[in-house]
Write a structure and sequence with these properties.
- By secondary structure, the chain is α/β, with parallel strands linked by helices.
- The chain has one domain (about 5-315): 3-Layer(aba) Sandwich (UDP-N-acetylmuramoyl-L-alanine:D-glutamate ligase), CATH 3.40.1190.20.
- Helix content is about 35%, strand content about 20%.
- It is built from 11 helices and 15 strands.
- The strands form 3 sheets. The chain has a 9-stranded mixed beta sheet, sandwiched between helices. Strands 3-2-7-8 form a 4-stranded mixed beta sheet.
- The relative contact order is 0.16.
- The mean pLDDT is about 95.
């Protein structure tokens, strides 16, 4: 059995609790792909489209579920409407565990993403405060025996009670900080909450600054920091290992959700006690191949295994 196939084989489900509990907002969404970035006040043909559940925590949950793990979700309530009912039905169909409530006082949010072949995207959404704030009232008992908790900084402070509960229970937290822009604005003490951090290089976060931040975070008690950056691939930092895995050449169709898919694949390898190099390679392979198709479904594991074997380690 190949290493990527071994990562796919989750451990026997002997616990009464999910292996991973994801904390974050949820809304139905759709993505449309176009050849090039949109221009204002100009029309454009779209090539493909797909429905998916957003945001990142939900993409991580559904991806881990596809990889064979038992997954829980702590999230906001939705409106008691057709959209809300469809979301709850899809979560139940997938087998994702949690308390999913519909509230007649709320309107289910919706997101539309436009993704282009340069790797760029834009989106239209409405992160309504009355919906997001219901996350603080969620039942947290589902995470009690989890091996890991996943969360995103942009859901702070609504995910604060769940993150504090994870720390109280001693559950390691995988925290996605995006491009670090919200760290100071949120006032979130990431060093006391997180065990694993993922950040993304962008126009606002050049690789040099990201690397310095990662090394500083290790000195402040973070166990693992990963810097992702599209074609750059992933740079991995821990006290005893520092390396890079360069992203392979692909035919890019839709990069929406790739960062979350990487997170789920890395976590899958990490929880299987695979080496850091193998876990990162698995994440890079599966997230890269996901960009060749529209939507957030995972690629065929045999294709992942072929790409996994081609990826090489670089010094950083």
């Amino acid at each position: 059995m190949s290493r990527s196939h071994q990562i796919l084989q989750a451990d026997p489900r002997v616990s009464d609790f999910p292996d991973v509990t994801c904390i974050g907002s949820i809304s139905p969404a759709e993505v449309y792909t176009v050849d090039s970035p949109l221009k204002w006040d100009k029309g454009s043909d779209w090539k493909d489209r797909a429905d998916f559940l957003s945001d990142d925590a939900v993409i991580v949950a559904s991806s881990l579920n596809s990889l064979g793990w038992r997954v829980g979700l702590v999230t906001n309530r939705l409106g008691d409407d057709v959209l809300g009912e469809n979301v709850v039905n899809e979560l139940r169909r997938l087998g994702i565990e949690g308390t999913f409530s519909l509230d007649s006082r709320l309107e289910t949010p919706y997101e539309i993403v436009i993704s282009d072949k340069t790797g760029g995207r834009t989106y239209i959404w409405k992160r309504r405060e009355d919906v997001l704030s219901t996350m603080t009232e969620s039942d947290l008992s589902i995470m009690t025996g989890s091996k890991f908790v996943y969360a995103d900084i942009y859901d702070w402070p609504h995910n604060a009670p769940a993150l504090e509960q994870a720390n109280t229970l001693g559950i390691p937290v995988f925290l996605n900080l995006e491009d670090l822009a919200l760290v100071n604005k949120s006032g979130l003490d990431v060093y006391s909450l997180a065990s694993v951090i993922q950040i993304a290089v962008s126009e606002n976060l050049p690789i040099g600054f990201a690397s310095r931040w990662a090394k500083d975070a290790l000195g402040r008690g973070i166990g693992i920091v990963m810097v992702t950056g599209g074609p750059m691939g992933v740079h991995y930092y821990s006290e005893d290992k520092r390396f890079g895995i360069t992203a392979p050449d692909i035919t890019l169709t839709d990069s929406n959700g790739a960062g979350a898919i990487y997170s789920s694949a890395f976590l899958s390898g990490h929880m299987k006690n695979m080496s850091p190099i193998e876990s990162v390679k698995f994440g890079v392979a599966i997230s890269s191949l996901s960009c060749e198709e529209v939507g957030t479904d995972l690629p065929d594991i045999n294709d992942v295994d072929k790409m996994f074997k081609t990826l090489t380690v670089t010094a950083i």
